[in-house]
Every structure is written in structure tokens, then in C-alpha cells.
Specification:
This protein has helices spanning 2-24, 140-151, 170-176, 178-181, 205-208, 222-225, 249-259, 292-304, 336-341; strands at 28-33, 43-49, 56-62, 65-68, 71-77, 85-92, 100-107, 110-118, 127-131, 156-159, 199-201, 269-273, 276-280, 310-314, 346-349, 355-358, 361-365, 388-392, 408-412, 435-439, 444-451, 454-461, 466-473. By secondary structure, the chain is of the alpha+beta class. The strands form five sheets. A seven-stranded mixed sheet has the order 12-13-14-15-19-16-20, with helices on one face. It has a six-stranded mixed sheet with strand order 11-10-9-21-22-23, with no helix packed on it. It has a four-stranded antiparallel sheet with strand order 1-2-6-5, covered by helices on one side. The structure holds fe (ii) ion.
């Protein structure tokens, strides 16, 4: 009898403890984002919780003085197959460029989370960043690169798509993304990256191609979890630029309510960091890169950034790729002339799980504005070959000659998912003529340092080996 009562008491105690922890705990601890707006000296801090009754506040330091976040808002995510939860957004502004700040997240008057971050750099401050794509695969090498990225102390991390595998689900983020990139400690399982440095991401096919919400009601988590500028193109036919649905009305409504203003415009955006301008676009198969309004938006965006020292473009599917895998997905070659006119310096892509660097190049598609049919999927733009003529600057080596004549296209998709075509690494005969470097025998990240007119890249493996390096000087 006594044993029974004792066991029941223990059970009740455990239940209460679990309930208390669940009420107190974050589903996802706070993390930094560049935010929906594109204002200088501003960031957003997001966190997820199932607790809908508490009062949340956020304080942060500016010049060592504690101030309150301007505004805290939340979005409810109430979709089938997951417990409903809130994503909180705190906007912190009036930051001092480049200054380290502390922040506290406060629940019902008690500090429940503390961390540090850094304000975005100004036009005349040097900065560094990591570019790394195809990451959330829950692989040991992904974790090693997370730790390496953390040790580099970059100002931000740029992800050219395929944030989480296989279907961009809330449940996949929970397993393959947050524990690795927003870990409490830095070790072989991950690092406290996201709470310290903002991540900026382009969407990849694994993030937004799954629009069958009847099959996966918790798909399209990109729109719930990321806060990136909402300055994407507002064109007359949205289906030419953004994903549309196959799901029933109930699941679609639940998604739309939770995604709020982020869907659909957050698929394309631009922003400025330090002395650089970034154009981040969606290269997935539903986007029609022959659409004039869309192309005009890209042209105008790059034109508006003519005073920036550096112009970087980031998207997922590379136009210039020597891997046998995904070779036929060349639709983004169509934008090469616009990038050249817009004086783009470097294009960052992923999708292909290895590292590749092109010669600086210019490209003229065979038939301007049309796609030649090829590949396996003729109903979409994906899998279409874009033939044309390229001109390569073979005098640029990035060591002695640091002045490229043309755009340098990078594939940096060796961030965690299984590598593609390692057998091509030491077989230059298998590379396309535009490829200068191909490396696929280890996972790796791109570490970039920008200081005024200098851009230096190092491609670094999980073991810390530098397998490519070059510098551009203006
Ligand atoms: Fe991909």
C-alpha cells in the first residue's frame, strides 16, 4: 500500500516537474535574425515557446546601458501534426555598428535566457562571414563544420539553401537544425551559433518545394522560423516567382495564418551589410526566370546598389556547375548578363554538395530570354539546359592577379549532406571549361574576410585544411 502511494507520489511529482519544465522551457531558444525590415543598426531576436500565458520582455545593452526592445510580437503556429506554439519576435534597434551587445529574455519578470550578439557593421568596418549550403542533414560533418564556423567568430553566416532535409518540416528543424546551430555549448555536437551571429538564408528545393500540406502539414517552416527582409518582388502573377499549394483549404489556411506576412515575399530579398549589397533570390523550379517583371526587379535592385563596394548574389541552384549531379539544372545561367551589367562580384550557390569555383566569366545565352528544352523534367524550368557562349578570364588567379574580369560563381554546398561526385576532384578532364577549382573529397565551408576593397576567401574542410584561397582587390 505504502509502495503504491509512494510510486503514485513520485509519478505525480515527475509529471509536475515535466509540466513545469515544459511551461518554462523554450521550444527553441533565442536566436538572431536580420529581420523583416532593412533598417540600419537593427536586428530581430526570435524564440519559440508553447507557453501562451506569460509576459515576455527583452532587454539589451547599448553602450553598456540596458534598454528595452522596441516591440515584441508573436505569431501563433497552429498546424496539424505539431503542438501549437508561438514564435516571438523582438526588434532591437539603435544599435552601435559593430558593437558587442548583451541581451536578456525575461519571462514574467525573471531572466530566463542571456547571450551576446553583435550589431551589424557599418560601411567602413571590416567584417567576415561564412557561406555554407546544404546543411541540415544531421550528419557528423555538419556538426564539425558548425563548431568550426563558431570558432571563426564571423559577423554572419550565409546559407545558400537546403537549410534542412528532407522536406523543410518543423519536426526536421527540431532534430537536424536547432540542436546543432543553436546548441548551448560548443562541442562536436554543435555550437551556440544562431544566438550569437545572424544567419541569412536563401531557400532551396528542400525548404520550399514541398507544398503538399496534406501530406506534411508542418512543411514550409521557413516562413515561420526566419525573419528576413520583406522587400521581394511584387509582380502581377505571383505564381511566376513564388510557390503555390496542392493542399486542402484547412491546411492551407493554417499555414497562411502562421506564416503571416512572410509568405510569399520572403523568398526573394536584398539587404546591405557593411560595404556590401546582397541580393538573395529563389532559384527553385517554379520560378520563371524568363519573366520580365521578375528580371526587371533584379536589374533595379542591382542598379540601386551601385554605390556599394561589393555586390554579392546568393541562390540555391548553380548555373555553372561541373558536377555530373544536377548538371542539367542550368536555368540560373539566364541571369548572367544581368549580373554582369549590375557589376556583381561573386555569386554564392549550393544544391550541388561540393565546392566549386569558376574562372571570372561573362556569359551570353544562345537565345536571349528563352530556354532550350533538355533534361528530364520538361514541365518546369528545372532540368533545362541553357547553352551559350562564355568568356573566361584565365589570367585571374586571386594570388598575383587579384582583378577579375567577370563574375566569379561559387558552389559551396558541402555543408553537411552527402558529397556529390568526389571522383571528379582529381579528374579535371571531367570539369566544364569554366571551372577553375573542384573539391569534393571532404565537407567544407567558405570563410570570407572583407576589408574595404579586399575580399579574401578560404575554403576550409572539417579538418581545418584550406583547399582553396583567393583574393579580389578593387
Ligand atoms: Fe538542393
Amino acid at each position: 500500500m505504502f509502495r503504491k502511494c509512494f510510486s503514485a507520489a513520485i509519478l505525480l511529482l515527475s509529471f509536475n516537474t515535466i509540466m513545469a519544465q515544459t511551461q518554462n522551457d523554450f521550444l527553441v531558444k533565442p536566436y538572431l535574425q536580420i529581420g523583416y525590415e532593412t533598417k540600419n543598426n537593427q536586428l530581430e531576436i526570435l524564440w519559440h515557446t508553447i507557453d501562451s500565458n506569460s509576459k515576455w520582455e527583452l532587454t539589451f545593452t547599448v553602450n553598456n546601458k540596458w534598454v528595452n526592445a522596441n516591440e515584441i510580437s508573436y505569431q501563433k503556429v497552429n498546424v496539424n501534426s505539431v503542438v501549437p506554439f508561438q514564435v516571438y519576435h523582438a526588434v532591437i534597434s539603435s544599435l552601435v555598428s559593430g558593437q558587442i551587445f548583451k541581451y536578456n529574455v525575461i519571462r514574467d519578470g525573471n531572466i530566463v535566457f542571456q547571450s551576446e550578439g553583435q550589431a551589424p557593421k557599418s560601411n567602413n568596418q571590416p567584417y567576415s562571414f561564412i557561406a555554407i549550403g546544404d546543411i541540415g542533414a544531421e550528419k557528423p560533418d555538419q556538426k564539425k563544420l558548425a563548431l568550426l564556423a563558431y570558432q571563426k567568430k564571423p559577423d554572419f553566416i550565409a546559407v545558400p539553401g537546403d537549410i534542412v532535409y528532407d522536406d523543410g518540416l518543423i519536426s526536421e528543424y527540431a532534430k537536424k537544425f536547432w540542436p546543432i546551430y543553436n546548441a548551448d555549448i560548443a562541442d562536436s555536437n554543435g555550437a551556440p551559433l544562431m544566438r550569437t551571429f545572424p544567419f541569412i538564408a536563401a531557400v532551396g528545393n528542400h525548404d520550399v518545394d514541398n507544398t503538399d500540406l496534406d501530406k506534411h502539414p508542418d512543411a514550409l517552416a521557413y516562413y515561420y522560423f526566419w525573419a528576413q527582409p520583406l522587400n521581394g518582388p511584387k509582380i502581377s502573377d505571383f505564381s511566376k516567382a513564388y510557390p503555390t499549394f496542392k493542399s486542402n483549404e484547412i491546411n492551407k489556411d493554417a499555414f497562411l495564418k502562421a506564416a503571416g506576412q512572410a509568405y510569399p515575399v520572403m523568398n526573394h530579398f536584398s539587404y546591405d551589410y557593411g560595404n556590401s549589397h546582397w541580393l538573395v533570390i529563389d532559384a527553385d523550379n517554379y520560378v520563371d526566370w524568363t519573366n520580365k517583371e521578375l528580371l526587371d526587379w533584379v536589374k533595379q535592385d542591382l542598379q540601386s546598389a551601385s554605390s556599394a563596394t561589393w555586390r554579392f548574389v546568393m541562390f540555391h541552384q548553380p548555373g555553372f556547375n561541373s558536377s555530373r549531379e544536377h548538371y542539367e539544372q542550368q536555368q540560373m545561367r539566364l541571369l548572367a548578363p544581368i549580373f554582369e551589367t549590375g557589376k556583381v562580384d561573386v555569386v554564392f550557390t549550393g544544391h550541388v554538395h561540393n565546392y566549386q569555383r569558376s574562372f571570372p566569366l561573362t556569359f551570353v545565352p544562345d537565345r536571349k530570354g528563352t530556354l532550350l528544352v533538355g533534361g528530364k523534367d520538361n514541365n518546369t524550368l528545372r532540368g533545362r539546359v541553357v547553352n551559350g557562349k562564355w568568356t573566361l578570364d584565365k589570367s585571374f588567379d586571386g594570388i598575383i592577379n587579384k582583378s577579375p574580369n567577370g563574375v566569379i560563381y561559387l558552389v559551396t554546398g558541402a555543408g553537411g549532406a552527402d558529397l556529390y561526385n568526389p571522383e571528379q576532384t582529381n579528374d579535371p578532364d571531367s570539369w566544364q571549361k569554366f571551372t577553375f577549382k573542384f573539391f569534393s573529397t571532404a565537407h567544407s565551408l567558405s570563410y570570407i574576410q572583407v576589408n574595404g576593397n579586399s575580399f579574401k576567401l578560404q575554403q576550409i574542410t572539417t579538418e581545418g585544411k584550406v583547399v582553396d584561397t583567393f583574393e579580389i582587390v578593387k
